[in-house]
Amino acid sequence: MYQTKYHRASSVDEAVSLFGKSSEAKFLAGGQTLLPVMKQRLASPSDVIDLGKIKELQGVELSGDTLTIKAGTTYYDIMTNADVKKAIPAIAHLTSVLGDPAVRYRGTIGGSIANNDPAADFPAALLALGATVKTNKRSIAAEDFFQGLFSTALEDGEIITAVAFPVPAKAGYEKMRHPASRFALTGVFVAQTKSGEVRVAATGASQSGVMRVPAIEAALKANWSPSAIDSVSISANGLLADIHGTAEYRANLVKVMAQRAVAAAG
Amino acid sequence: MSTVKLTVNGKAVAVDVEDRTLLVQLLRDHLNLTGTHVGCDTSQCGACVVHMDGRAVKSCTMLAGQADGASITTIEGIAKGAELHPMQAAFRDNHGLQCGYCTPGMIMSAIDIVQRHGGQLDEATVRHELEGNICRCTGYHNIVKAVLDAAGRMKVSQAAE
Fold first, then answer.
1. Contact A243, A152 (CB under 8 A)
2. A99 and chain B: CB distance < 8 Å anywhere?
3. pLDDT for residue A30 is more than 90
4. A103 interfaces chain B, CB cutoff of 8 Å
5. What is the nearest CA distance from A75 to chain B, expressed in angstroms?
6. Which residues of B are less than 8 Å from A28 in CB distance?
7. Domain check: are A76 and A45 in the same one?
8. What are the residues of chain B with a beta carbon less than 8 Å away from any beta carbon of chain A?
9. CATH number at residue A190
10. In terms of domains, do A149 and A94 share one?
């Protein structure tokens, strides 16, 4: 790791102010991605501003039909939270298959979506559930927030404070895990909103990051069952291909994971 | 340079380190607690697992500064004098190690698993929960046996306290 200056912020305002005083700063949430990248010398921020001890970024609130998860909440705390399990159990399940126990103790929802890894799990949940990303400056719809590989609508010095999820009627998430990295080779989140809309998002599949899957949404809108997806055809065009799987393999995984997710959602 | 103040195995320490220092480097290079190992250095193998405020974390994937104010327990801090921790004893009795490189991380993760699951542990759960710890010798079979054995012993020793 190259030299860097470590700062611990005690509030969002202090973090923003520290960022403004640095030349090439990075915000540090759980550090489960940023630190490995810094150790490989693929990132060399002049300053690292730790958000991990900011109290206003911790916790979960369920109010009416909205589940709000503060950005600094760890995967473990999300997975074991009673409100999450009650309102959107698919999110508790998603966190239980994300990384490993030690990673889940440190990694945060805010860090995951700010990084927007094309194989990360949480972007699929946000997009399928129609969540809103809250920052210290504004609210951003999930559709507008994710802008391709490792790219988001966040501006320099902007900090995610929370994610607000509308509580769905039904939701499910299933993924084919890469056995070593435990990232999603492909993962699919399916949701039926309380107004009857069907939204489906896939991660790990597209070259442009997390994506909606309109063909599966239409099939499930007509008939909410795994078998409704049997006849859907997913094109391999624009899908990721690497040593772990071809684009055709991932296209098939989008269908299969969607079917399993619908079965899990009930 | 910054001064990091933390509690390690019950003892308060203050260490001057470069800001880029990882927690595992602070433990090994500055405090000479070399029981915590660096295996892959990419947060996959779990040889570096320690407890921070009671939670099993990968000390190669944390800056030392992030642990400022925290209470850290390493493999050196779990035995009571000459008496091994029940998890250590179970690893020995079940041949849960061969070369021993992964063992400190395995034991720290395993204690965390037992503490979270209490008496609800079964083999499938142990195997799933040990995903973040890699062993290249044993094939895991005896490690899993040791964790299940220790789960019983830890319940008994807690009841006795």
1. no
2. yes
3. yes
4. yes
5. 13
6. 63, 66
7. no
8. 2, 18-20, 22, 41-44, 46, 49, 55-58, 61-63, 65-66, 68, 109, 112-113, 129, 131-133
9. 3.30.390.50
10. yes
Q: Which of A6, A38, A76 lies nearest to residue B65, judging by beta carbons?
A: A6
Final residue before a domain boundary, out of A166, A186, A220? A166
Cβ A187 vs Cβ A178: under 8 Å: no
Pick the residue from chain B with its C-alpha nearest to A47.
B19
Search chain B and give the residue with CA nearest A32: B61
* A68/A158 same-domain check: yes
Evaluated on CA atoms B14, B17, B19, B20, the torsion sign reads negative
- State which residues form the domain around A108: 57-166
* Tokens describing residue A90: 């698919």
- Percent share of chain B, pLDDT over 70: 96
Question: CB B46 to CB A181 under 8 A?
Answer: no
Query: Is this prediction's ipTM beyond 0.90?
Result: yes
- pLDDT digit string (tens) for B9-40? 999 999 999 999 999 999 999 999 999 999 99
Minimal Cα–Cα distance from B111 to chain A, Å? 12
The confidence band for B126, taking pLDDT boundaries of 50, 70 and 90, is very high
Cα separation, B36 vs B23, in Å, equals 10
Those residues whose C-beta lies under 8 Å from the C-beta of residue B97, and which sit 6 or more positions away, are B91, B103, B106, B137, B138, B142, B143
Write the secondary structure of A49-96 as one string of H (helix), E (strand) and C (coil): EECCCCHHHCCEEEECCEEEEECCCEHHHHHCCHHHHHHCHHHHHHHH
CATH number of the domain that A38 lies in?
3.30.43.10
Give the separation between CA A188 and CA A97, rounded to whole angstroms.
13
Q: Tens digits of per-residue pLDDT, B55-93? A: 999 999 999 999 999 999 999 999 999 999 999 999 999
A61 and A34 in a common domain = no
- Residue B8 carries which side chain, given as an amino acid letter? V
